[in-house]
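Revision sheet: structure tokens.
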Amino acid sequence: MLARLGRTAARVGIGLAAGAVGTAAITLSQTIEMKLTGREASTAPVDTLDKIADVAPES
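Predicted:
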């Protein structure tokens, strides 16, 4: 039983690590693309939150 729990915990840990590495890779590639093309960050997430929660970001 404990061995099975250990394997599951190890697999969850591996999945979390893989997700973190993937997120970092996508963020890095997007940052490089934005600098190369001069594109600014999207405001869609903030706009959506403002509509849903009536919250505006502080500038």
